[in-house]
Every structure is written in C-alpha cells, then in structure tokens.
Amino acid sequence: MHRLPSPDHLYLTENSSVLARFNDDRSWIEYLLSRAIPTATITKSTSIRGIASGVHSDSVYKQLELAVEGVIDIQVEEVQEVTNLIRIRKMLNSPFEGRWHQLKVTGNFELMLD
C-alpha cells in the first residue's frame, strides 16, 4: 500500500485486537510492528489504535508499548452509573500528567475532561 505523506490525517482504530481473532499472537504482533505502526511514521500522520486489555499475553502488550510513542489508557467503570476515565501512561518527548481524568460526554457527543 502506497500513501502520500498526510500530516493532517488522523486514523482511529477502535479495536485492533479483533485481528488477533484469526491469528496467533506472534503473527498479529509481527503485522502491527512491521506494517501497521510504521505506516503512520512513513505518512507523517497520526494513528490511534485501540487494543483490548486482558486478551493478549503480557509480552504482546510490552512489545507494543515499546514500539509506540504514546500509551493512553481508557477505562469504563460501572458501579451505580457509567464513569469513563482516561490517562496518559507514556508520551515520548512530551511532559504529561499521568493521573486518571473523568471524561464527560456532552449532549452533542463531544468529550470533555472533568
């Protein structure tokens, strides 16, 4: 696949873990590390890939975390009501605050940090 540089493009993948459904961890991680992740660097674009927790082996998560520039955790808690939380766990070359923040969804589906 050949793409021109596109620094104004943002690629979102809700759940890349579904690709592992028909592949073993080794094949899946090899695809991400050799093709999917480098594409954003080559095209000078931004790519955000969702990876489900608890699905893959610990070594898979460690390899992915080492290969990317940032790791953002999203957590949904359901006690009496649904609470959406977000934090930055890793961000290369940029200062960040690693504490959890609550996400609020507005009436027009915009997200706001609480």
Report what the structure shows.
This protein is 25% helix and 31% strand. It has 114 residues and is α+β, with helices and mostly antiparallel strands. The chain has 2 domains: 1-68, no CATH class; 74-114, no CATH class. 3% of the residues are buried. The model has no long low-confidence stretch (mean pLDDT 88).
Short description:
With 114 residues, the protein is of the alpha+beta class.
Mean pLDDT reading: 88
Using the alpha-carbon principal axes, give the shape.
globular
Run of helices and strands = EHEHEEEE
Please state roughly what percent of the residues sit in beta strands, choosing from under 5%, 5-15%, 15-25%, 25-35%, 35-45% or over 45%: 25-35%
Question: Low-confidence spans: pLDDT under 50, at least 5 residues?
Answer: none
Overall domain count: 2
Gyration radius over CA: 16 Å
Please identify the structural class as seen in this structure.
alpha+beta
Main sheet strand line-up: 3-4-5-6
User: What is the makeup of the main sheet?
Assistant: 4 strands, antiparallel
Count helical runs: 2
- Kindly state the percentage of residues in helix: 25-40%
End-to-end distance, in Å?
40 Å
